[in-house]
Amino acid sequence: MPELLPTGHFLVDPVALDRDDLNQTYCELRNSYKSVMISRGVFRSKADQNRAAMRELESKLRAIAEREASVRQEAYEMLEIVTNVVGELEDAGDSLVNEFGAYQLGRRSYQGGAFIGRLIKAVIRFINRWTSTKQQLTAMVDKQQAMQATLTEGADGTDR
To answer: Whole-model pTM above 0.85?
Structure first.
């Protein structure tokens, strides 16, 4: 690519130039203009390529953000399940301990027969809650495996 001449190289008023100098200056201007137009085309082409790359990068970033948001939401759902499971088991365990304590006190005073029914009901509630929480735990494990698969897909560079 030819070197562009500085503006000071060209006279401000071409009246003082003879025809040969005028023709030569015109040719130099034309070549400089041609060089500028080529450079402009190269610049525009690279700018277009950069815009396309930026759009592609933006779409990939959006996909990653959406995937991360989905995983985050699933993690919060799993945390809620775990919290509920632990809470239910604590409640069932507390109820069982309280009823067993009441049965122990009632047994000492020979009134254990009345408390044994409540103790059995507490055991049944505990078993029902245990069964329910195991089902929730199974659902949570399934979600965890799905989340792990989603994260693995994102880590190996493939898009869904």
So the answer is: no
